[in-house]
Design goal:
Blueprint (H helix, E strand, L loop, with lengths): L7 E4 L9 H10 L4 E4 L6 H17 L4 E4 L2 H6 L4 E5 H6 L2 H4 L4 E6 L2 H9 L4 E5 L15 H10 L4 E4 L7 H6 L4 E4 L1 H5 L3 H7 L2
Parallel strand pairs: 1-2, 1-8, 2-3, 3-4, 4-5, 5-6, 6-7, 7-8
Length: 200
Amino acid sequence: MIICMSDIICVTNRKLCNENFLARIEKLAAAHPAGIILREKDLSEKEYIKLAGEVIEICKGYNTPCILHTFAGAAKRLDCRSLHLPLNILAALGSEDKTGFDVLGASCHSAEDAVKAEWLGCTYITAGHIFDTDCKKDLPGRGLDFLQRICESVSIPVYAIGGISSGNIDEVRKHGAAGACVMSAAMRCDDIGKYLGELK
C-alpha cells in the first residue's frame, strides 16, 4: 500500500486533540507513520476541503502520505490520490469517480465487507473494531479470530483498528494484519515518535 518504515496509520479526530489540531498534524507527519487518515466526518465538504488543504501541505513537507476520508470530490479537487471511504459510500461511487486514486481504502466489519471492498477496487482495508475501546464503549471488540478471518478472505493489506496498543499489536500482526490504525492515543499522547516506536 504505502512504502514506509512504519506499519501504523494514524486516524485523526480533532475533538480528541489536546492542542492545536494542525500542530498535532505536524507532529504526526514528522514521526512518519504509514499514513494519516484525515477523518473529520462532522465537517461539511466545504469545511473539510479547507482543512484538508492545510493538512496535505503539512504532510507533503514531511513526505508523509495524507489519506482523505469520506469526500471523494474533495480529494479530486485537491489532487489527493489517496482516499478512504465507508463501504457504503465506496459502493455508491461510479467507476469514473474511483479513477485517479493510487491508494483506496474502506472500513470493513465482516469478511463479506472485505471481499466486497477488494472487488470494488480497494488497495487496502481497515477491519474493526478488534479490541474494546473507549470510542465504542457499548460494543465489545470483535477479537483476533475475526481479524484473521478477514485477513484470510482478501489478498490486499488489512489494517486492524480499535483498541490497538503496544501490548496487543504483536498478536494483531500474528493474525495476518499488515499493520494497525490508531486514533485516540495518536491525538493525545505527549510524544508521538516515542508512541509509534513502542508499536513497532
